[in-house]
Known about the structure:
CATH class of the largest domain: Alpha Beta
Number of helices: 11
Number of domains: 3
CATH superfamily of the largest domain: FAD/NAD(P)-binding domain
Strand order of the largest sheet: 3-2-1-7-19
Oligomer: single chain
Structural class: alpha/beta
Amino acid sequence: xxxxxxxxxxxxxxxxxxxxxxxxxxxxxxxxxxxxxxxxxxxxxxxxxxxxxxxxxxxxxxxxxxxxxxxxxxxxxxxxxxxxxxxxxxxxxxxxxxxxxxxxxxxxxxxxxxxxxxxxxxxxxxxxxxxxxxxxxxxxxxxxxxxxxxxxxxxxxxxxxxxxxxxxxxxxxxxxxxxxxxxxxxxxxxxxxxxxxxxxxxxxxxxxxxxxxxxxxxxxxxxxxxxxxxxxxxxxxxxxxxxxxxxxxxxxxxxxxxxxxxxxxxxxxxxxxxxxxxxxxxxxxxxxxxxxxxxxxxxxxxxxxxxxxxxxxxxxxxxxxxxxxxxxxxxxxxxxxxxxxxxxxxxxxxxxxxxxxxxxxxxxxxxxxxxxxxxxxxxxxxxxxxxxxxxxxxxxxxxxxxxxxxxxxxxxxxxxxxxxxxxx
Length: 424
């Protein structure tokens, strides 16, 4: 069997090496639009800020592919698929055959349609080459457009390098896919305390300057700067599949075996849309590392004729900047808008904050700042097990604290639910 993988990110790399470890005889080829071996994109802001050396971000070395008999073809951007002849054609006109094709090419940075978007001094942190350019840049004033996790982490990185940094966010609060407004506003206050002002509910209209960046113009003001970083989110790469006749929505549509509408073509990672693990909601885009890895493992099982089924995607992410640590999992309140039986529980202690979202007694999401973030593992386990928190005291009688994998005990959780400080 000839397996061709398009993409060398977390998903593609996991497919390639997991498949090789399970089946030494399979012929594996991999196309990558980039010229470097696999790396961790989550590490890029820390490389930009000087917290880690460039070589630390790599997950593989070029020799790893050769050592494991994986034919790696860098600087080959796939542009079309001939589904009848089973060929993938690259930008340079090369054709690569396959018996099974895995699309794991991720997505691309969303570039807003604003005047001046192509001026010098505008960067992103989507790829290693993006990060290289930003790390080498010498600037003093930066505006970050967008406030997702990468945007906040890049803001911290540039602040550490001595920049004056401002974050501009179109929506009413930062990290909008991870946190509700009460949680996010606490994080905005923390950022301001570190010298990073955040301007929310503000639309960027254009970028001024002759050849280089001079200012970011919003619907409220002009922000002088010599550096702009686009942290505007990732758009799933669906065009390659769509032009081949594969069904797409916001991303490439897949079933629970990670098969596309053409069974010999599978897909995983940031290019796909799938379903929510807890609610079953379709058209789900959780572009996070753990989802990419889980999807890739199902792809390998499907390629080998196994019975693996994808359990669905879910949100679980951490936001760490300076000495502030926050975490989020599951749904936000916006994600369950319109649902009946939704309840919110909040607890705050010494600047730490916990927010839990329930529906009919079942936990759907959690957000935490500070020490409360340490209990995310416990909350995740309880969400997976579908605990009804209305029966939490009954369950407590049958559960020993030493059975729990995290330092927060079930009894402490009951204390939080009851507001009993002596248990916290």
